[in-house]
Amino acid sequence: MILIDNQPISFPDSSSQSQGKDILDILLENPTLVSASNQFKSQPERIISDSGAHMKHVYVFQREFATVDPAVVQIVGTDEATTCVGLVIRNKNNGLTSVSHMDFPEVVDRGLNQMVQSINNPEAILDVFVVGGFDDSPNKNRRGRQTRKEGYSYPLCHKIIVSLLKRPEKFLLRLLFVLRHNTKSDSHGNQIPIFGGLLLETSTGRVLPACFENHARSPDEIVRRLLVSVSNDDLNLRGNLLDIYDTRRDIFTIPCVRWSMIWSELAYETAQVSDEEFLLQFSTSPFAEPPHFVQCQRRIGRYVIDHPDWRYTFPGGKPRVFQRNDDGTWFKCD
Fold it and tell me: Pfam families annotated for this entry (predicted)?
């Protein structure tokens, strides 16, 4: 169930369909949500450089989720979203907050289950914030090459809204900064997102646009990025978000994922293509990616080429566990 201004939303089925609108289109025009989007857009993007002893944060990569306790973590967030979506669900009763970085509609239903179950007391009214997924369809890029006809963002945003609407919990939709609200044009006329990241201040519940610098995406950046791709080979993980953080103990646990040797062959082949061709082949939004996208993906490929056997990364099939130092940095536990 979705609420706006503490009231359940309802839709005039026949009239909305006759006008060519669906649930998502109607919500994008809701005055309360439009006002919230305008306010969010007016905020400066906050840059997170690193955790410290007095400001602990948790960063969520693509296809991950993390649930945090405000007594332990002050900031939780994600970035690098173009056609992906950052989703925040917060229990106002206890402050527990779950943040995910969803990339495809296939992970939405199970992902929502994981997030809601981790928050406790699902009978409470849960605040929801949705950020990401710019208007990528139709979009002619500067080479005159048209992207995927229906885009990637709309199906994902639509799936999230429909799934929230069908669930029994009460979701108070506070922000829907997606699609046309999160779209601008670059100097070449390509449509790109206004913001690709968000953070939530756990003590206040305030959500702001955010960008995380490299060191702030710790721990275990390369392996966690790698798992976005290779986790599809694991039937136990397919369709789920990766649950990587335990807020009670303030530790990251990167689950063991097994991948085939073919990944190193693929990495070697992609290492031979130009940066421009790499973007066109391996990005859902080649002209909206951040400047470091290709370099980062090449680092992942180099890791797989150097360590093609998953057992190097996960000796004995054990997860990789990281604990936080007193100064906010992370160290790997034996």
Answer: N_Asn_amidohyd
- Report the C-alpha gap between 131 and 43 in whole angstroms: 14
Model pTM score: 0.92
Over residues 281-304, the pLDDT tens digits come to: 888 888 899 888 999 999 999 999
Tokens of 234: 């694991």
Give 112-163 pLDDT, tens digit per residue: 999 999 997 767 899 999 999 999 976 544 444 444 456 899 999 999 999 9
- 117-121 own/partner pairs: CB under 8 Å, 24+ apart: 118/65, 118/67, 118/243, 119/67, 119/89, 119/90, 119/91, 120/91, 120/94, 120/96, 121/91, 121/93, 121/94
CA distance 47 to 184: 20
Percent of the chain with pLDDT over 90: 69
- Cα–Cα distance list, 5 to 29, 31, 35, 100, 244 (Å): 15, 11, 12, 24, 33
> Which residues, in sequence order, are CB contacts of 326 under 8 Å at separation 6+?
53
Q: Which residues pair with 90 in a beta bridge?
A: 97, 127
Name the residue among 27, 327, 51, 322 with its Cα closest to residue 199: 51
